[in-house]
Amino acid sequence: MAQLRFKNFSDLAFIQGVDKPRFLAPLLEPHKAYFQRQGLDVTKLKNGDGHDRQLLEVFTNPDEEMPAGLLESLYVLDDLADDAGHDRILAEAERQGVQLNGIVGQEMSPGEFAIAVQLQHAKIVRVAHDRTLYRKIKNYEEYQAKGNKQLTLNATKAKRTSLEEELAPWFESKNRSRACEIYVYEEKDDIKFEITHGRPYRTDGSIDKKLKRSRVAYRPQKHDSVIYDTRTRVLKLNAQIAAEKDLYRKSIGKILFDDADYFPAGDIYTLAPLRKAKPTLALVAGVKSVRLTEVWIQVNDEHGFVQTSRAHNLLAVAERHGTPNLAQGNIVRASFLIEYGSGGRPRKLELRPPNVAIYDRARDGAPAEAFMHANGFSKLPKP
Q1: Could you tell me the residue ranges of all domains in the chain?
Q2: Residue 342: which residues within 8 A CB-CB, separation 6 or more?
Q3: In the chain, what is the straight-line distance between the N-terminal and C-terminal CA atoms, in Å?
Q4: Per-position pLDDT tens, the chain of length 383
Q5: pTM (two decimals)
Q6: CATH number of 139-257
Q7: Which residues contact 48 (CB under 8 A, 6 or more apart)?
Q8: Alpha-carbon dihedral angle through residues 296, 297, 298, 301, given to the nearest 10 degrees
């Protein structure tokens, strides 16, 4: 196997900092046979026993016999073994109504805390990790509902199985298997769908330690994200291909709203305000400063010419030099660097009409939406 790259389990100081008898030993004990072949008895691990470097070697340079369950646990815990992961696990336990008795209140590092919860409440850790992955998704296509029907979390959960059954035949017909699992939860005004399904079957050649060649066959998983904003009645889709996005759009409309075309394709965003003679960018609450840093201008001719321009502040450059000419052709993409009142470095907001906005929704959602409305870039109803 290739070398594994972890944030924490690749760090000797992290391994040394975890109480081995209390946490590492019970975590690794189900895979003791594998570790015994590596010359380690994980049932007898002690702090300061000199096995830290051996554990580091096994974690980062495994052979082809490493159990899949062990590998998955290491990846999940590695993503949650910090302060942010600690808080996400606590929030998920609270959301599920699980009391972390004997864990909360104990003196543990974030890594020890994640392992302790994994040992007693593995589902909490898995869901917290899944939600961490989905938070990293920033690119959604958006569709405005044509009606005013209300949707609640309870009503969505009641039809979750029906939605899975609606999606499964499509995945099967596209050589992805019928496997389809949907996890639904609510976060502020959003009802969120985490959709897990199979990818096309995959095979890889492998060579074991005795140089014997073999073939490994498996079906990878794919995780897609769908968000329904109950304030604006907008459906937001993130998936790998256009056909999957169309499947989710129609299936959710059909199952949850009794209308497959409840979320019709249409313009959500526009960059037309940038085509004014002297465009300016209005600031809103939560936005300290903003700069236009990139535009893609498509010229309507037989050659399909697209001009890409980048600068520290394109509006200032255009006013001084007349280039780029924002009134020319169609502006098909634009990027802004926004300094938010919440702090940190300026963060990117990218618009791709008619229905794609890329930004950190979890961190910058409200001020970014307000900025787009104030400048005429969003055609969505104001919350």
Answers
A1: 12-134, 139-257, 272-374
A2: 286, 363, 364, 367
A3: 50
A4: 445 578 888 888 888 899 999 999 999 999 999 999 888 899 988 887 778 888 888 888 777 778 878 888 888 898 899 888 898 899 889 988 999 988 988 889 999 999 999 999 998 998 888 776 655 556 889 999 998 999 999 999 999 999 999 999 999 999 999 999 998 988 889 999 989 899 888 877 766 666 777 776 778 888 899 999 998 899 999 998 889 999 999 999 999 999 999 999 888 999 999 998 888 999 999 999 999 999 999 987 767 788 999 999 999 999 888 889 998 889 999 999 999 999 888 999 999 999 999 898 878 989 999 999 999 999 887 76
A5: 0.65
A6: 3.30.310
A7: none
A8: -150
